[in-house]
Amino acid sequence: MLSAEERGRYARQLALPGFGAAAQERLREGRVLVVGCGGLGSPALLYLAAAGVGRIGFVDSDLVDLSNLQRQILHATTDIGRLKTDSAEARLRALNPHLHLESYPLRLSPDNARQVFAPYDVVIDAADTYATKYLVNDVCCSLRKPFVHAGVMGWCGQAMTVLPGQTACLRCIAPTPPAEPEPAARAILGTVPGLVGTLAASEAIKLLTGLGTPLADRLLVYDALAASFLTCAAHPDPACPACSHLRDSQ
Ligand SMILES: [Zn+2]
Questions:
Q1: Are 136 and 145 in contact (CB under 8 A)?
Q2: pTM of the model
Q3: Residues, CB-to-ion distance under 5 Å, ligand 1
C-alpha cells in the first residue's frame, strides 16, 4: 500500500501506462548501489532518490573539489573539501527523506567489493577508472548481480546493462581494461555524464520494476558533438573469463 504522501510525490510516474502502485512498491523495496558520486553518479543518484528507490548505497572515497562542480551536480560550492558521500547523503535526504541511504566513503577494491555489493539488487558502474569498472564487472558477474555500465570521455559516453550469465559483459566486448587515460585526456563536457548517468538510472528503474526492455547485449554510444546515438550489438563471448562459466552452469 502506498501512503497518501507517496501517491502525491510519485503521481506523475504512477500515471504511466503499466507503472501504477505495484511498480512503485517494487521501487520502494528496491536496493541500488552506485559506484562513484561524480559526474555519472550525481544524476543517477538524484533520479533514483527522486523516483523512490527505497534503499540507495553510494561509494566514493574522494573529497569535493572546485573542478568537480562543472559536472558533479550532487555537490555545491559550499561542499568543497567535504567527503563526496557526505554531501551526496545530505542532498539526497533533502530531496527525498523517506529513503534508506547507505554511504560507503571507501575506495572499492577486490577485498571489499563483494561485501559492499551483496545487499543490493542492482549496481550502477559510475566509476571513473577502467580498473574500477572491470572490478564492478567481475564482482557482479561472480555474484550474478545485474549491473549497468556507464562511461564517458570528452564529448562521448556509453552505457550497457549486463545480466550476468544471460547477456554480454564488459569483458565479452574488451577482455582486458584499456590503459587509464592521461590527466589531459580527462576533459569532459558536463552534460555528457549528466545524460549517460540518467540513462543508467532509467535502466536500474526498469530492472527493479520489470518494465521495458533492458539495454542488454547492446552498447549505446552517445556523441554530443554529432548529436547522435548509436547502438552497437554486443555478443556474449563463449571464452569470456568473467561470465562464460555462468552460462555453462545454467
Ligand atoms: Zn563476459
A1: no
A2: 0.97
A3: 169, 171-172, 240, 242-243
Residue 188 DSSP class: B
| The total number of structural domains that make up the chain | 1
Q: How far apart are CA 30 and CA 55, in angstroms?
A: 6
Q: How far is the CA of 144 from the centre of ligand 1 (A)?
A: 12
pLDDT at 248: 65
Nearest one of 147, 188, 186, 187 to 164, comparing CA atoms: 147
Q: Which domain holds residue 193?
A: 4-248
Average pLDDT, the chain: 97
| Whole-number percent of the chain with pLDDT over 90 | 96
Is pLDDT at 233 greater than 80 in this prediction? yes
Whole-number Å distance, alpha carbon 163 to ligand 1 midpoint, is: 10
| pLDDT for residue 185 | 79
118 CA → ligand 1 middle, Å = 20
Q: Which ranges of the chain does DSSP label H, i.e. alpha helix?
A: 4-9, 11-14, 20-29, 41-51, 84-95, 113-117, 130-143, 170-173, 191-209, 244-248
Q: Angle at Cα 242 formed by Cα 238 and Cα 245, nearest 5°?
A: 55
pLDDT of residue 114: 98
Question: How confident is the model over 133-155, as pLDDT tens digits?
Answer: 999 999 999 999 999 999 999 99
Query: Which domain CATH number covers 79?
Result: 3.40.50.720
How many Å lie between the centroid of ligand 1 and the Cα of residue 170? 6
Alpha carbon 155 to its chain centroid, in Å, reads 19
Q: Counting every residue, how long is the chain?
A: 250
